[in-house]
Amino acid sequence: MDPAIVVMGGGTGLATLLSGLKHYTADLTAVVTVADDGGSSGRLRREMGILPPGDIRNCLVALAEDESLMGRLFQYRFDEGPLSGHSFGNLFLAALTKVTDDFEEAVRLSSKILATRGKVLPASLDLVTLRAELDDGRIVEGQSAIADSNRACRNIFLEPRDARPTDAVLEAIDKAQIIVIGPGSLFTSIIPNLLIEKIADAVEAAACPRVFVCNVMTQPGETLGFSVAEHLDALIAHTRPGIVDTMIVNTIEPPSPIVEFYSAKGAAPVLVDRDRLEAIGINFVFAEVASGGNYFRHDSRKLADAIMSLL
Known about the structure:
Elements: E1 5-9, H1 11-21, E2 28-32, H2 39-48, H3 54-63, H4 69-75, H5 88-100, H6 103-114, E3 119-122, E4 129-134, E5 139-141, H7 143-148, E6 153-159, H8 167-175, E7 178-181, H9 186-194, H10 197-205, E8 210-213, H11 228-238, E9 246-250, H12 256-263, H13 274-278, E10 283-287, E11 290-291, E12 297-298, H14 300-309
Parallel strand pairs: 1-2, 1-7, 2-3, 7-8, 8-9, 9-10
Antiparallel strand pairs: 4-5, 4-6, 11-12
């Protein structure tokens, strides 16, 4: 019997994890943040009043049985005319939402069309907005504005504060045999899911392992200079101390050319501050879960292996 796994986050980090885990189980649920307001997703949200489809589209493609033709179709981005900047998958989800008058149903039907191994769920069906207090005291509104601010975040808030999760999300958490949070943008992809109070309550109460996957690189502005312990500190500060019991930490160091490449963009490898980690009362899994190339990021299979070993 396939293990029931719930993963939470958004952006490319979550899609990378899903593409690895789908080889181990079909009972896989991705809970995806719905706070994106930039690019094609932001335009569709503003112009059509729908939830942003971009992160959900990426997760659907990552879970597809065949990531070739249909995946390429959903990821195809128009580069000319009035549709320039939109991906086909975003437009498809927007049209299906209007046809069914139900975003959740549109995602479910898209999952069926792509023959996904597992399901993708929006964290909430409420139109939510992120607000952040930056390290210079300014308050910035909107996920894209926060990401573009090039400043570290002190606090992040979700409006409305009483955003509601879907029943399907809470049911998936309740039956999960392991819950995985991250990887992804800490303040704009990971934490927003847990700012929905009932989701945080359900995760904290879960009897299964609750795992936080630490990023391998800092993010310009958002987490510049953050160590592993500081990633965990930020997660706990925005939720509660018992939100996770295990953390996966990468131990591979990127080669010098990659470090220089990221440094020019305002990013750096996340420092593994083992002395501080030893004083924190959770389980740490130190593993080689990253790989290099043009970029340094989590390796989908290695990370999936590390997660499955916890079961």
